[in-house]
Amino acid sequence: MKKDAKFSNGDDVKAQDLATCLNDIIANNKLSRASAGEIKYEATGEYTLKATTERPTKDLKSILGEWTNVVYKKDNNGKYIFTGPFIIKTLQPKNELTLQPNKYYPESDKRPDTVIVKAFKDINTLKLAFESGEVDLAFGITGEIAKELKEKNKHILDFNAGYQYFTFLNTKNEILSDVKVREALDYAINRESIKEALFGGTLPTGLFAHYNAFDTTEKALYDTQKASQLLDEAGWKLESNSKYRQKDGKELALTIKTYSAKADLPKVSQIIASELEKSGIKTNVEVVDNISEVTKSREFDAVVYAQHPSPAGSPVYFLNQFFRTDAPNNFTSYSSVKTNELLDAMGTESDTSKLYDLAKQVQKEVLKDRPVLLTMDPQWHAAVSDNLKNYKLWNGDYYIVNSSLKVK
Q1: Consecutive sets of 10 residues in the chain, 408 residues long: mean pLDDT of each?
Q2: What span, in angstroms and rounded, lies between the C-alpha atoms of 400 and 10?
Q3: Closest of 363, 407, 370, 369 to residue 387, by C-alpha
């Protein structure tokens, strides 16, 4: 461990503090076990740590950088003390957060004296707040709003989100358990329509953002004739006098569930529904408040979802979290012996080029089985005031308050 890291109260961050913190996270957050299973951390000296993993891994550096692994400790009153560049002055849950520089973090004197983070439930309200000068940075505006603000000569940042938009399919669903139906849905969706509606983005070629070396080149193809053929083969026939396909007297009907916390997703879902309707699939869209409750319950047909698949710069975490049998976020109930074997191989591979090749093989296998449909590699947008013209964004929404956030 580095020896100059400090908690925001000035205490040194030592090995026992880190071991206690990381073991607490492993015990209480199952998502922290995705990459290598359960990990036991043990202090072996004042600044040395031993990690014992349930599954083999050569990727401990990325694991320690995963978003679950925040460094903290509790004081005698049970208050959490962190190590980051800012401290929390006030917190109004789901509404507002006030930050001040952590004086024990390097270059604290170069940070703004106060940063206020506000939550807006409605994207248009956020737009009005920016235009009125209430906020200096409007993060997460849609492509349409970004275009409107550009026409008003406002300063807009367009950037590769890092996140991907996915359509996850419930493989235990009576209809979607048939891989031919899942494949048909894939062919029935016109991603160009989605890109146009979002005013930008890149057509996806794999499960990761296009700029990652471990992304594959498995393009999603649009072919309505192929979609119809597959549905016919699966027994879902479209009679000449019917709008929707039927099988054994049952109508082919699906519900897409999504959420509005990512403003693009309801629009993306509506476009997908419209495309599926063209293939004789009755499709309903339902926008829910808590998508986690939906995925946890497994009570869905399809979920349109935003996910950053490589926040720590590695393909290991996402692939294990979503596609290993019985993994924490495998809410599609996908299970593949071959995929599991490839994921195991990734855990023992130390050569980066070979690891990336294995990641591509996993993607190829998953995209063949289609528990998930590639939907869009999006571009995101933020509006910034004249005070923040040197501000930069990267890696989705992981580092909005970053070192470039300085008042001009």
Answers
A1: 95 97 96 94 97 93 92 93 96 96 94 95 94 96 96 95 97 97 98 97 96 93 97 95 94 97 96 98 97 94 96 92 95 98 96 97 98 97 93 87 85
A2: 25
A3: 407
Closest among 374, 373, 376, 372 to 195, alpha carbons compared: 376
Nearest C-alpha neighbor of 384 from the set 120, 124, 149, 122: 149
Would you say 310 and 318 are in contact if contact means Cβ atoms under 8 Å apart?
A: yes
Q: What is this structure's pTM? A: 0.93
How does DSSP assign 84-120, residue by residue? SSEEEEEEETTTEEEEEE-TTSTTGGGS-S-EEEE--
Contacts for 150 with CB less than 8 Å, ≥ 6 apart: 156
DSSP letters along 25-40, please?
Answer: HHHH-GGGGTTTS-EE
Whether the Cβ atoms of residue 208 and residue 309 lie closer than 8 Å to each other = yes
Q: Rounded to whole angstroms, how far apart are CA atoms 393 and 161?
A: 9
Sign of the dihedral defined by the CA atoms of residues 103, 105, 109, 112, in that order = negative
At 217, list the tokens: 């080149």
Closest CA to 288 of 303, 274, 273: 303
Report yes or no: 304 and 265 within 8 Å, Cβ to Cβ. Answer: yes
Helix (H) or strand (E) holding 219, with range, is: none
Q: What pLDDT digit, counting tens, does each position of 46-64 carry?
A: 999 999 999 999 989 889 9
* Strand ranges for 214-292 from DSSP E: 246-247, 250-251, 253-259, 282-288
**By the 8 A CB rule, do 387 and 136 touch?**
yes
φ/ψ (deg, to 5) at 24 = -65, -40
Backbone angles phi, psi at 336, to 5 degrees: -145, 125
Find, among 132, 116, 204, the residue nearest to 165 by Cα. Answer: 204
* Per-residue DSSP letter, 61: H
